[in-house]
Hints:
By secondary structure, this protein is mostly beta strands. It has one domain: CATH 2.40.50.140. Helix content is 5%, strand content 45%. The protein has one helix and seven strands. It has one helix at 126-133, and strands at 6-12, 17-20, 26-39, 46-59, 76-89, 96-112, 118-120. A five-stranded mixed beta barrel has the order 1-3-4-6-5. The longest helix has 8 residues, at 126-133. It is globular.
Amino acid sequence: MPINSVVLEGNLTADAVVRQTNTGMSVINLSIAVNDRRRNQGTGEWEEVPNFFDCTLFDREGHRQWMVPHLRKGFKVTVQGRLQQSKWVDEKTGQNRSAVKVVVSDIDAAWPKRDGAQQPMQQRPAQSTAQFQGVQPQPAYQPQQSYQQPAPSASMFEDDSIPF
Length: 164
């Protein structure tokens, strides 16, 4: 069975762009720069060399559309997904062309703090998301009752019928 899986962490090179399909599904396009360290043959010094990846997130149910205004140029993101190759013929030159993009299944972005630094999106204040969506934040899940299994007693292990 072939494996097609990729995880990338880098910075957005532009603001996220969202468009709607005819069926109402949101398509979020991102471009990510991921630095790679390479030794310069001329100087012998290590250099940061950027690699650029186009990413597409299909948001069928609209669960991630709230984050689009916050996915701004320069934000650090981590995406998980699969690679997909597109092939076409260039109309001007007649040459065969191809491109590989990341079809994103999961995204984790940095959330700006008040001082301009970034923190992981999961640690953002709960009211930020709810405020953007226009709903009240839900209280954290509280179990109705806790279940505690009784500790084993010594008599549970004392059975003369089991030969050792």
